[in-house]
Amino acid sequence: MHIVIQGAGRGLGLAFAHHAIQAGATDLYLTARNPKASEGYSQLMPSASIHWFNMDFLQPAQIASTGKAILDTAPHIDRIITTAGVLHDAKIQPEKQIGALDPEAMLHTYQVNAMGPVLFLKALWPALRRARPVTVASLSARVGSITDNRLGGWYSYRASKAALNQYIHTLSIELARYNDQAKMVTLHPGTVETNLSQPFRPNLAEGVLKSAAESADEMWATLDQLSPDDSGGFYAYDGRPIPF
User: Fold this and answer.
1) Are 123 and 45 in contact (CB under 8 A)?
2) Angstrom distance (rounded) from CA 82 to CA 123
3) Which of 172, 175, 167, 169 is nearest to 127 (CA)?
4) How many Å is the Cα radius of gyration of the chain?
5) 181-200 per-residue burial string, b: 16 or more CB within 10 A, e: under 16
6) Could you write out the three-class secondary structure of the chain?
7) Given this model, what pLDDT does residue 64 score?
8) Over the stretch 214-241, which tens digit does the pLDDT of each residue have?
């Protein structure tokens, strides 16, 4: 199996990379903003079967060039997983009220959570449209469900993940016209022990938080169970559908 994982430098992306090896992947094509400085690079050093690429979802030209480099390296692709997600960082925080909205923060969140994944899939499009089985998953979030939004808040994060769901759903329709063996979905990983969840852990109920390895294992199993008929859907880590 030839597996592409965006965001493999840490967290869920790294957990997916380890799971891919356990699942029998023959070649991994891994990306990080700065691979050599990442935890993933130190654990999975470059080799004949592990290939690292620099890619920052805030740099569209780099997304395109990285996609081309992967296509030039991989004979084919069996599975693509994008894990990017920003809720907070040194510059932005989730907005609880409309007065907190800031245009630059809104754009930053949208670029990472929505634009980046779909532009990466655009770059890999020649491999996706080949008539052969391929599985594509982009990590979304339950709070990206408009139907399920009962609490409000987190404006930009919610909106960007809803946009991601729409991008992937729309792209799955186009892809099916060329490759009816493809399945392309968005996944909710649950509440995972990563940097994204760190500030909110004190408020979580006991047993809610799961490790990155546990979440990656569950999502990988869900992807194995889904069929091309499920393409375009939005699913939780355990395979249960989530309304858009």
Assistant:
1) no
2) 13
3) 175
4) 17
5) ebbbbbbbbbbbbbebbeee
6) CEEEEECCCCHHHHHHHHHHHHCCCCEEEEEECCHHHCHHHHHCCCCCCEEEEECCCCCHHHHHHHHHHHHHHCCCCCEEEECCCCCCCCCCCCCCCHHHCCHHHHHHHHHHHHHHHHHHHHHCHHHHCCCCCEEEEEECCHHHCCCCCCCCCCHHHHHHHHHHHHHHHHHHHHHHHHCCCEEEEEEECCCECCCCCHHHHHHCCCCCCECHHHHHHHHHHHHHHCCHHHCCCEEECCCCECCC
7) 98
8) 999 999 999 999 999 999 999 999 999 9
What's the full length of the chain, in residues?
Answer: 244
| pTM across the whole model | 0.92
Structure tokens at 46: 């470059």
- Other C-beta atoms within 10 Å of 149: how many? 14
232 close to 173: Cβ distance less than 8 angstroms: yes
Residues near 120 by beta carbon (within 8 Å), at least 6 away in sequence: 6, 55, 57, 63, 66, 67, 82
Q: Residue 200: is its pLDDT beyond 90?
A: no
**Rounded to an integer, what distance in angstroms lies between the CA atom of residue 55 and that of residue 189?**
22
| Rounded distance between C-alpha atoms, residue 135 and residue 172, angstroms | 11
Residue pair 232/184 in contact by the 8 Å Cβ criterion: yes
Q: Answer left, alpha or beta for residue 11, where phi above 0 means left and psi between -120 and 50 means alpha.
A: left
Rounded to whole angstroms, how far apart are CA atoms 32 and 72? 18
Domain spans of the chain, in order of start: 2-208+216-236
Q: Flag whether pLDDT at 26 surpasses 70.
A: yes
Fold of 2-208+216-236: Rossmann fold (3.40.50)
